[in-house]
Amino acid sequence: MNTEKKTLRDSIALRWLVLVLVSSLMFGTYWFQDFFSGLKGLMESEMGFTSEEFGRIIGLTTIANMFGMIIVGGIILDKWGIRLAGLVFGGLAAVGGAITALASAGFFGENHGTMLTMMIVGRILFGSGLEITCVVVTKTTVKWFKGYELALAMAINIGFGRLGSALGIAVSPDIANGVVPPAVTFAATLMGLALILFLIYTFFDRKIDAQRKEQSGVTPEEEFRFSDLVKLATNPSFIYIALLCVSFYAAVFPFIQYAPDMLVNKFNFSYVLPDDPSSNIILFGSKAIGNSSVFVVLFIFGLAFSLVPSNIRTRMNKNISMLIIFALFLLFIYLLKDTFRLWFTNGPKTASLIPLGTILFTPIFGNFVDKKGYGASIMILGSLLLIFAHVALSLFSIRILAYMGLLSLGIAFSLVPAAMWPSVAKIVPENRLGTAYASMFTVQNWGLGLFFWGIGALLDVANKKNLVSIRAGEMNYDYTIPIFILVICGIVSIFLAYKLKQADRRQGYGLELPSGQKPG
User: Fold this and answer.
1) Which of 74, 184, 320, 488 could join 104 via S-S bond, C-beta 3.0 to 4.6 A?
2) 346 in helix, strand or coil?
3) How many Å apart are CA 398 and CA 404, to the nearest integer?
4) Reduced to 3 states, what is the DSSP secondary structure of residue 270?
5) Other Cβ atoms within 10 Å of 343 Cβ, number
6) CA–CA separation, 508 vs 376, rounded Å?
């Protein structure tokens, strides 16, 4: 007879309530990370920012993480625990958001230099808390769902982050309505509300810690050790996959920040939707709420395609469930076909589909890697798609190629992470995974910071002779060179994925094998 006492974790309702509470932090931080993407043109015309200054605001968000904040935060998380670390780093991110919002509204002074400086200060503080907040949320999800629906919970948690990115890019122009500060204030308010929800969660966290102490067999997690860095730095496979992480994400995340403006300037997309009644969904008298509801429904469909069939046992019932979901999805698209037709001519709305699409594709590709393997080969394929995407978007001005490039980028953005992160778990022992991820994220932030800022600076340099005409609205930015530079990242990614495949043959981690299968 099992006499083990029940804990809060054993309540299905409480587990999922906890997931919603902590995933709100993921949603809010990802929104604030990416929402400026849809406002670049407005920041230039209304606030007088240059592309380089826009890039500086975005790029310096990563500065603290470039110099080891993620590693320091990981140590602090292990020593302080989820509650204190979450409140401190989540609070730091929220304070950064508030300063950014106040600066954009001229609270610290309406002088251009002061406004720019204080917005950068706010973004640096936000970035200092960003990554560790996400780690806190992930660790909390594991704490509550390990032994239960962990894979499902992790997928939904990541989905909340992607939904935050997509909505931030797509809906911020609707919230701004021609004026930047309201969109910044809204994004900062989301961070504050998310922190309040996390504060509510801490009461459950305190209770479950007390319950776990009463049970036997609970062992403390192994803390970070600097000696682990030496072991990782001398492992060729880890070096290749860490550098691949830098080169691949440097060609994706910075591009997303500039994608709406690039679509407007290069492919004649719009920043503002036309007055056609079908261009916006009005809900509760608000087009921002109405348009957001469309993305939420797409988010639900994305999760349903991947997660509903996986929880059904028989093949026939799986197929039936897929058919039902697909039929409902087609009906939804048909009912909103006129709206989507107009949205696909709008820069922010179209660009937002890149992070939203990963909700559907990443679990599908992850399931393939689990069952079939080919991890390193899939990373090569994803890098090839990355090259095609940036060639199509930089060297050509044909709209159909723009759609094909964005689709390729979305698939690559799903393929490579689906293969990369499980591969890290094969290369690195479990007791050093925290160190490995912290090291990879630190190095990754160097690439992100360089390209976030660099693309904006290069955009001004490439258009130096025409900047006066561009500011006057007489000409468009030429994005050819700044986007073509990202092709180099794709080429480097292919080289690193190939070297990883070679190293795996020598070291025998089984990156090309299905999960659980060891090299013979």
Assistant:
1) 184
2) strand
3) 10
4) strand
5) 20
6) 13
Domain residue ranges of the chain, discontinuous segments joined by + = 11-212, 228-272+359-520, 273-345
The Cα–Cα gap between 290 and 273 comes to 14
- Answer yes or no: are the C-beta atoms of 142 and 7 closer than 8 Å: no
CA 463 to chain centre: 30
Contact 376, 497 (CB under 8 A): yes
Query: Whose structure tokens read 């995340």?
Result: 253
Q: How far is CA 136 from the centre of its chain?
A: 16
pLDDT digits (tens, 9 = 90+) for 61-119: 989 888 878 878 777 777 788 888 889 999 999 999 999 999 999 999 889 999 999 99
308 vs 336: CA distance, rounded Å: 24
| pTM score of the predicted model | 0.86
Contact 97, 168 (CB under 8 A): no
Residue type, 40: K
> How far apart (Å, rounded) are the C-alpha atoms in residues 97 and 455?
23
Q: What is the DSSP string of 420-471?
A: HHHHHHHHS-GGGHHHHHHHHHHHHHHHHHHHHHHHHHHHHHHTGGGHHHHH
At 296, list the tokens: 């939420």
Distance CA 505, CA 84 (A): 44
CB 33 within 8 Å of CB 130: yes
May I ask the CATH architecture of the domain 228-272+359-520?
A: Up-down Bundle (1.20)
CA 419 to chain CA centroid, Å, is 16
Per CATH, the number for 11-212 is: 1.20.1250.20
